[in-house]
Amino acid sequence: MRTLIVNGTIVTADGSYQADVLVDGETIAQIGANLAATVTVERTIDATGRWVIPGGIDIHTHMELPFGGTFAKDTFETGTRAAAFGGTTTIVDFAVQSKGQALRTGLDAWHAKAEGNAVIDYGFHMIMSDVTDDTLAEMDQLVAEGVPDFKLFTAYPGVFFSPDDHIFRALQQTEKNGGLILMHAENGPAIDVVAAQLIAEGKTDPYYHGVARYPVFEGEATSRVIKLAEAAGAPIYIVHMSVVNALNVLREARDRGVPAYAETCPQYLFLSIEDLGNGFNGSKFVCSPPLREKDPNWDELWTALRRNDLQVVSTDHCPFDFHGQKEMGRGDFRKIPNGLPGVEDRVDLVFNGGVVGGKISKERWVEIVSTEPAKLFGMYPRKGAIAVGSDADIVVYDPERSRTISAETHHMNVDYSCYEGWEIKGGSDVVMSRGSVVVDHGEFTGRKGYGQFLKRGPAEYARKA
Ligand code: DUC
Ligand code: ZN
Ligand code: ZN
């Protein structure tokens, strides 16, 4: 099948220009002016007044994550379908090694969840809950299999938590095998002390989830893990950075030339600790790190995105229903499953808040939602680019469209939206995954099982950039 996208403006991280795009099979075959005059195709998409952008890449999702005695509700089918509606054509999800298991067991389980179900391409990072001689050796094998990143936690004692010696050994291993360590950086043991004290004082509402997780606990853990990475001579990537205390540490390290990278998420750019108020309704906004004070964090995070101190916006998509799941934490905020839905709204929220809001250029928008994730996570230029030879993961984007976000109309398998009623500009008209149209003006035209596992390369870019 050959498809021609005509009359659009191609927007990439490097610049924008008017040109047509020829898709042949699964890849981009030609880019140029007035291609209709020279090529014959089976299908033509008119992108007049639209932007032609590389499909979004969300490198931080948790489909079916087991958490706090329940599971994140989106499956690979529902979650990737929702992603596609929102202009995202690739996700990288976190496979989980439970304590005492081999990495292989966790990875196999995630392959089984995704295969035959995903509607767009997907890769995996590996959550390591145990660092042992055996799992360290397994890391090398996973890098060779296209799973080159490993997430460790300084939070969640007794579940995902790793002590410093484990983190340091894992960093040393990636220094040797070319992989990348991703860190959830919050001081979990200290948080647990404060949380227990708050509960003892009768402060059980969701709001106190935000109070317990001091900004300095994120700053301290971020500082510690970046210094451990420096000591190991390995690059490091901090997930879901939420607050200035952590950002200042990151900036200071990057100014010294340390290969430290980080993402933030829409919830830290658009929501605040005030959303955690309003009684138990605040449980809809419980995630970790928690939502922070608006000032100065929102502005500082945008500035960091503009200046490349932050490279990526991903979602940490981890949806739990308000009814029946978030409700598990009535009377004790520690029992509320942590996580927010977001995979469907990321591209549009960052467009609306960032580009329409005058904070970043449209080229930087494409860079932080697609191109940098592809580069840092071993997918570029196959993904994240509008270039000859790249996968035809293409979104025809309408910057003028308006829509109202609502749980009534979203495609994520969750009974609420954190952005309910928000009117935003921008939206994906046509979404193409490897040359196949999967969403066409609001209609799903894809297929369960179409998405393929993406074998990703090692983190060379993170070592050089
Ligand atoms: N934070 C969340 O909010 N949910 C899943 C895991 C995490 O680190
Ligand atoms: Zn995390
Ligand atoms: Zn996460």
Protein architecture, described:
This protein is an alpha/beta fold. The mean pLDDT is 98. Helix 3 (133-144) runs parallel beside helix 4 (164-177), helix 4 crosses helix 7 (215-232) and helix 7 runs parallel beside helix 8. It is globular. The protein is built from 13 helices and 21 strands. An 8-stranded parallel beta sheet has the order 8-11-12-13-14-15-16-17. It has a 7-stranded mixed beta sheet with strand order 3-2-7-18-19-20-21. The protein has helices at 76-85, 103-114, 133-144, 164-177, 188-200, 207-212, 215-232, 244-255, 266-270, 297-306, 346-356, 362-376, 460-464; strands at residues 2-6, 9-12, 15-18, 20-24, 27-32, 43-46, 51-54, 56-61, 66-67, 70-71, 88-96, 121-127, 149-153, 180-184, 236-238, 260-264, 312-313, 394-404, 423-433, 436-440, 443-444. A hairpin with a 2-residue loop joins strand 20 and strand 21. One zinc ion (ZN) is lined by residues 60, 62, 316.
